[in-house]
Specification:
Layout lengths: L7 E3 L13 H8 L3 H4 L11 E2 L5 E8 L2 E8 L4 E4 L3 H12 L11 E6 L2 E6 L2 E6 L5 E3 L11 E2 L5 E6 L2 E6 L5 E3 L8 E3 L23 E3 L5 E8 L5 E6 L9 E6 L10 E8 L4 E4 L5 E2 L12 E3 L6 E6 L5 E7 L6 E8 L16 E3 L5 E5 L6 E5 L5 E4 L6 E9 L4 E7 L11 E6 L6 E2 L6 E6 L5 E8 L2 E9 L4 E7 L3 H5 L6 E6 L6 E7 L10 E7 L18 H13 L4 E6 L8 H5 L11 H14 L3 E11 L1 H12 L6 E5 L10 H7 L21 E7 L8 H12 L5 E5 L10 H16 L5
Length: about 750
């Protein structure tokens, strides 16, 4: 079906009929590779360890083609075996419950293995199974989290938010009590602002969001915030179809934009659970910055003894970063050190990871900085003065994983140090705290997902590439492999004819830097044919778009990869590329986007890369080039068609932030700067350049990227008398790019407007 200019299509909850442009078999072949279909049939691609306290052992759930198996690993003795006799437990549970139990698919969750017993939840009850005698019995309770709760380390308390206040539940009795009583909808405890992550239509109806809080190791206290957005300007959404017989509904929520006088602020505090006492932190409130959109322990974390609270503080624009220390007894707070920079100062290159900050027993601090031009580790004294650099060179530290004070060593992941390898691949290294040569502990030319045991005696390493199936091994602290745990089972994938994508590198437009990407081909690829080329894009600066490890988990990047493979099945060559302005490389490479978001991840570099690739790959038809992306990728898509209209002929741009003046203050102020000239990134200013086919998509309930940005671009196209296509998806928020209706329209649009157009 054709989408006519200015026609608004309303999506349905039912799966739409197949378009006349594509046969049902075409759609079915492509949909095999959508993330929700392909990832569940990939086996043994990862190992998630559940550590057994006080030991070097852990268990994990293995999901293979023969069913589920709980596996117990003794890291010290390098042994692996079933955690228990699965058929025997299934039979015991069946007899006790009167329910048929499949031993290959045990309905078990929240298990604990200790002292010869297995404690678990199943069939809405708690159970205890004797590993030696085989006896099973209902247990009084298993201390576990309920929806919207965060469990204390000792399992005795569960923290939750109710009516904007903090509450705690005692897991042994079920008794609940409030910790605060003065919360309100726009001044709530342990809650992020309504501008991030939450569908606005569910904010007050969905009580499953976990509190934004961190327990102390001794389970006595929590560190959290009170979020104040009372004076933040309101923004609105119009829900066109709240019900078939209901009038459209207006939703109001608070949303701070760049240069607004007031943004949400987070007032830090500690709560003593035993004394029911709230202790305000004696430091100014934290304005909402990009660090807020991460894990709970990114801004606040506890010392090992639970007696000291540490935190990071960033000003608006994030050009300064302070490290703070707080006494939770009285809230007294001191600044330990501060770093400032001409652009944003990062605490870690890996989004949502704990800051690369560690306190040593001596009082010294390991601190991460990009001040040398690359992310590295430095040692600071108690006085906040730098002592020396721990690491250095033209490569980037990613994440600190473990500090061994007895040996005065630090273990961390990094990328770009090994010559001839993709600089985005993570490797594990060890370095002495007094500086010196780094030791590579993961030698394979691949991306390494590493987890070090809590006692620091060994580590798990899952290494892979997009063209190398995952292998999970146990290694000692010198990097020697002591045991192979799992090897990825891709048989279902290869049975579908899948072949790995082609990894490539190309030179940047200035010729100085190598750029890295993937070429994804259909399973029936024929090099003698000419294929239209489609880029699936995201410009940064927050993250990258190209998968580096094998795409076996439901991560953001992996889902993009498989959606690209699905599209390729319809007769396209799909390309991903990470250009200047994206993270994980040098500071200069990342800063290419600072104040220049309109460059959209280096569009000139993308054009040149495709031209370079096509010279050696005649099957790539550069007369038929398309592009699509979501959110910032939607912005990049529109910018591509308007900046290089002679090159990019067709685009699908969903939920794009086409004007950062109307996005969150924490984004524009960080990446464009405080009070900048925003015209350089304003997509609507280029509206008259549109000559290709562009489909704009937005959800009417998008509380992250408000539909106003799409509507303003629509208005600019109308004013410029430029034809375009437009789809509004009802009752959808920002996360719509894997909705079946969207996927089918994406398939249709590129098939009709790009694939089926005769080559020039």
């Amino acid at each position: 079906m054709r989408l006519f200019p200015h026609l608004i299509l309303i999506s349905m909850l039912v799966t739409p009929a197949v378009s006349s442009s594509l046969e049902a078999a075409d759609i079915a072949r492509a949909e095999r590779f959508l993330p929700a279909n392909v990832i569940p049939v990939l086996y043994n691609v990862t190992v998630a360890p559940n550590w057994i306290d006080g030991t070097d052992s852990f268990w994990y759930l293995k999901t293979g083609r023969d069913g589920k198996e709980f596996v117990l690993v003794d890291g010290e003795n390098c042994t692996k075996q079933p955690a228990f006799d699965h058929p025997a437990l299934a039979e015991a549970l069946a007899q006790e419950s009167g329910t048929s139990i499949d031993p290959s698919d045990l309905p078990i969750s929240i298990i604990a293995i200790e002292n010869g017993t297995v404690r678990f939840s199943a069939l809405n009850k708690s159970w205890e199974y004797d590993l030696n005698g085989g006896a099973i019995a209902e247990a009084p309770f298993v201390r576990e989290e309920g929806p919207g709760e965060t469990l204390s380390p000792n399992g005795e308390f569960a923290l939750f938010v109710q009516d904007d206040d903090l509450w705690v539940r005692e897991t042994s009795t079920g008794d609940r009590r409030p910790l605060t009583t003065d919360g309100s909808p726009n001044c709530a405890y342990a809650t992020r602002s309504e501008t991030v992550l939450h569908p606005v239509s569910l904010i007050r109806q969905n009580e499953s969001s976990k509190p934004y809080a961190v327990w102390s190791p001794d389970s006595r206290r929590i560190a959290t915030f009170r979020m104040d957005q009372r004076n933040v300007t309101a923004l609105h959404l119009l829900q066109y179809v709240p019900g078939n017989d209901t009038r459209p509904r207006v939703w109001e929520y608070r949303f701070a934009m760049p240069d607004d006088e007031t943004v949400p602020v987070y007032e830090p505090l500690a709560v003593d659970i035993q004394e029911n006492r709230v202790v305000p932190v004696s430091y100014r409130p934290q304005p909402e910055v990009s660090l807020m959109d991460t894990n709970d322990d990114v801004l606040q974390w506890w010392s090992e003894d639970g007696k000291t609270l540490y935190s990071l503080y960033a000003e608006r624009g994030e050009k300064s970063l302070r490290l703070l220390r707080t006494d939770p007894e009285n809230g007294d707070t001191e600044e330990i050190l501060e770093e400032e920079g001409p652009t944003y100062v990062e605490a870690n290159l890996d989004y949502a990871s704990r800051p690369n900050v560690r306190f040593l027993s001596s009082g010294d601090v390991i601190w991460f900085s990009e001040k040398s031009g690359y992310g590295h580790l430095y040692l600071y004294g108690e006085d906040g003065e730098e002592k020396w650099a721990i690491t250095g060179g033209d490569w980037a530290v990613r994440t600190i994983l473990y500090v061994d004070e007895n040996r005065s060593q630090v273990y961390f992941t990094a990328g770009g140090r090994e010559p001839g390898r993709d600089p985005y691949y993570r490797h594990l290294y060890r370095a002495n705290l007094d500086g010196g040569d780094e030791v590579l502990l993961t030698p394979e030319d691949a991306d390494h997902e590493v987890q070090i045991s809590p006692r620091g005696t060994f580590f798990l390493d899952t290494y892979s590439r997009v063209d190398l199936p995952p292998v999970t091994v146990l290694r000692d602290l010198n990097g020697t492999t002591t045991m192979i745990l799992e090897e990825g089972d891709l048989e279902n994938l290869t049975d579908m004819g899948w072949k790995p994508p082609e990894r490539f590198s190309s030179k940047s437009s200035d010729g100085d830097v190598d750029l890295y990407g993937l070429i994804i081909k259909p399973t029936n690829f024929n090099a003698s044919l000419k294929y239209p080329v489609v880029e699936t894009v995201y410009p940064g600066p927050w993250t990258v778009v190209t998968a580096k490890s094998f795409p076996g988990e439901m991560t953001w990047v992996n889902k993009i990869f498989w959606r690209g493979q699905a599209l390729a099945e319809l007769g396209f060559v799909v390309v991903t590329l990470d250009g200047p302005g994206t993270p994980y490389r040098s500071k200069e490479f990342h800063d290419a986007s600072y104040g220049r978001l309109g460059d959209a991840g280096g569009l000139a570099d993308h054009v040149q890369a495709l031209q370079q690739l096509a010279k050696e790959r005649p099957y790539m038809d550069l007369e038929r080039v398309g592009i699509f992306g979501h959110s910032a990728g939607g912005f990049m898509t529109a910018q591509a068609l308007l900046t290089y209209p002679e090159f990019y002929k067709v685009g699908v741009a969903s939920s794009g932030d086409y004007d950062s003046r109307f996005y969150g203050s924490y984004w524009g102020e960080k990446y464009e700067g405080l009070k900048p000239d925003y015209d350089e990134q304003l997509t609507a200013l280029k509206a008259e350049n549109l000559t290709g086919k562009l489909l704009l998509v937005t959800g009417d309930m998008d509380d992250n990227v408000n539909p106003c940005m799409t509507m303003q671009l629509v208005d600019a196209f109308i004013a410029a008398d430029r034809p375009f296509d437009f789809l509004v998806m009802t009752n959808r928020n920002h996360d719509l790019s894997y909705d079946p209706y969207y996927i089918h329209r994406l398939f249709d649009y590129f098939t009709e407007q790009l694939r089926d157009q005769a080559p020039a």
